[in-house]
Amino acid sequence: MPARSPSHEARHEARRLGGREVCLDNDIEVIESLPPRFRSLMERSLKLYQRIARLDDMVAQGGG
Known about the structure:
- The structure is a single chain.
- By secondary structure, the chain is mostly helical.
- It has one domain (6-60).
- The protein has helices at 6-11, 20-23, 28-32, 36-60.
- The longest helix is centred in the last third of the chain and has 25 residues, at 36-60.
- The model has no long low-confidence stretch (mean pLDDT 83).
């Protein structure tokens, strides 16, 4: 049996990025109530998650 490529493995549903409903939930009211340093961390974490989600989508569509 031939070895599968890493991109083939990444496209498998079990390997896809999860937690979108949690990680992309931006309750502005809650975020604005946080201390500035924590709010900054949350914003940077969201941007990182969004970048990874775009890469995950590209791989899933066969572009990675």
